[in-house]
Amino acid sequence: MITTGLIFAGSAQASLTVLIDFDDSIADNGIHDSSVRNGGFEEGSNGQSFADTPVWSSYFSPEGDSSGLTSNTNVATGSLRGLANGFSLTGDRQHPTITIPASDWTIAAGDVFTVSVDWRNGAALDLADQLQVILHVVDAGGSPVSDPTNGEFSGDRLLSRNDSLASVGAYQTFANTSTPVPAGSPWIGNQIQLRILNSGARNEFAIIDNVYLAAAPIPEPAAASLGALGLLALLRRRR
User: Fold this and answer.
1) Is it the case that residue 84 has pLDDT exceeding 80?
2) What is the CATH number of the domain that holds 171?
C-alpha cells in the first residue's frame, strides 16, 4: 500500500508519497500505523535470511541472500530489526536493499526523496564507523542509470550520505533529503533503489530499524523549499 496526501498516486501529484514505512506502535497517532514495504521488518520472522524476508534482499545478490537479516534483539520499535555490514575485507556483504517499482513511483524532474533510518551499533561496530544510506537510480531491469552531470560518486546515486555513530549502545536517527532531479536528467523515467550499509568491514554490523522513504515532486523554481520538505518528514516521523 502506498500512502499519499492526495487521492492521486505517482510522481505527478504535488504531495508527499510514502514509499517505505513502519509501524511505530503508537496507536491512533495518524502516522506510521501500517507498514509500507516492510520498513520495520515485522512482515518477517525472527532469524530470517535476506532471501526469506518480504521485500528486502541483499544488494550483492546472491552473495548475501543466505545471511541472517532479522532479529528480535535490540529493536527500536515493534518486534524485529535488521542489520547491515561493511564493504571491506572478506565475507558476505549484507547490504539491505529495496527497489521501488516504476509502477509506484517513476522519477520525474523536480522529484525529491526523504529517507530516514533508526540505527545503532551491532557486533564490532565502533565510534569510528558510519552508517551509509544510498539511493541508486536503476532501470526496469535493475541496472544502474548514470547522470554524467549530476549524482554523487558513481553518477547513479541520487543520494549517498553517511551518519557518524554518536554513542555506543543507543539508537539514533539518520535523516536526509535529496536534491531535486534536474530537468533533462537520464534518471527521469527510471526507478529508485534504497541501499543501506556501513563504513566498517564485513565483520562489523549496524543494527537498523524503522526505515522510511518518501517522495514528492518539487518544481525546480521552488527548490528553495527543499528544507521545508525535510522538516515535514521529520515532524511526521517524530510527532
Assistant:
1) yes
2) 2.60.120.260
